[in-house]
UniProtKB/TrEMBL annotation:
UniProt keyword Cytoplasm present: no
Domain of life: Eukaryota
Transmembrane segments: 6-24, 36-58, 70-93, 105-129, 141-159, 171-189, 201-222
Entry keyword annotation includes Transmembrane: yes
Biased composition (Acidic residues): 228-254
Source lineage: Eukaryota, Fungi, Fungi incertae sedis, Mucoromycota, Mucoromycotina
Protein's recorded name: Uncharacterized protein
Region (Disordered): 227-265
Species for this entry: Mucor saturninus
Keywords: Membrane, Transmembrane, Transmembrane helix
Amino acid sequence: MIAHVYIGPLILWSILSTGIVYGITKSALYRSPIVYAALLPAVFGLLTTIMNTVVYSAHSLYTFVEKQVAVNIFKCLYASLAALPGLIAYQRISRQKEKTSGRWAVYLGFIYVFIVTVAGIVFACINNYDVPKSDSLRQFITRGNYGVIGVFALLLKIYGKRLPEKAKITLLMYTLFYMISEIFYSVAYDAHYFMFDPISVALVQCPMFACVVVSVLYGHIWSMDKPLDDEKDESESELEFEDEDDDNENDNIEASDVTDNFLQV
């Protein structure tokens, strides 16, 4: 029987993974590198929940240790890979707007995510065995994604003023959710909270879930181009102004005709 602490995260990540796959198969809007990248943390988040359920129902110590390694690897992957949608979006933006600093910041972000992911996998493999471990490596793993938050903040600073309003707001939301999840993950880790404690679920997994959801729903507008809805609103307002101008011209013509007739009389 599944413990109640796993039910919430299991439902969340199952719905998200299924929803992303459904969206990709049904709509071309979601067939983009950003959504494909968002599918990775969703899948690994689901696998982390499933493996945790299996681990804590294991009956032998060997099985527990063996599967706990997989749990730690999946947990590292889902947290690190959640940064990919944002980095891919900024890569697209950097191609639209020639800024060398922004482009190098994006490359730095990709390299940093790769380093953190590899270090996390290595640490996960040795964490449950009697192998000497470096405290500095442990601190880097628990706080490593702070560097990604710094890269996102730098990129928002570089491109924020020139991004469309909706793109800027949703990218900021994405960054804030990611930051909240990572900060409270390190706090929960230092306080020895279990990953599926209600506090950890509310402050670590739910913000990360929201981060991925935002990237899926709004990733298609993360560019320098204005969303189609905004363009449509602008075109409609322009038509309204044109109609008003035409009405004013007609009124002026009628008024001039009346004046001419009066003078002729």
